[in-house]
Amino acid sequence: MNFSQMMKNFSASLPGTETFKLANAECLAVIRDEPFQASAAFLIAGFCRSYVLIYEEEALEMDFARRNHNNLHGYMKTLDLALATYSPEDVLKALNDVVHHYVKSDRIF
Question: Which pLDDT tens digit goes with each residue over 6-65?
Fold first, then answer.
C-alpha cells in the first residue's frame, strides 16, 4: 500500500465513518510499507481516527459527511503531490500547509 493508492481508495468511497475507518487502516499499512510517506500517512490517520471517534455513533447528514470527505481528500491531494516529488522539503512544506489550514478551520476531525 502506498499513499497514492490509499488516497484513490478514499476518493472512490462513499462519505461516512466506514470510509474513514478504512483510510485509517490503509494509512497504517502505508506507514509500515513506505517509510518516506510515513509522516503524511500518520497525519491523515490521526484525522481519520478523530473523525471516527467523534461521529461513529451519530447519524450524519449527507452534506456534512460529503463536506468532511472532500476536506480530508483535499489534504490528501496536497500531501500526495508533495510526496510525488520525493523532496523532503516539499513534503515538510505540505505537512505544514495542511496543519496550518486545519488549525484555521472548523476542526471537524
Answer: 999 999 999 999 999 999 999 999 999 999 999 999 999 999 999 999 999 988 899 999
Parse the chain into domains and list their residue ranges. Answer: 3-104
**φ, ψ dihedrals at 13, nearest 5°:** -95, 155
What pTM was estimated for this model as a whole?
Answer: 0.95
Cα–Cα distance list, 44 to 25, 52, 59 (Å): 11, 12, 23
Q: What is the DSSP letter of 35?
A: G
3-class SS string, 29-80:
HHHHHCHHHHHHHHHHHHHHHHHHHHHCCCCCCHHHHHHHHHHHHHHHHHHH
Q: Which residue has the cell 478504512?
A: 22
- Which residues have CB under 8 Å from 48's CB, separation 6+? 20, 21, 23, 24, 27, 72, 109
CA atoms of 13 and 48, how far apart (whole Å): 14
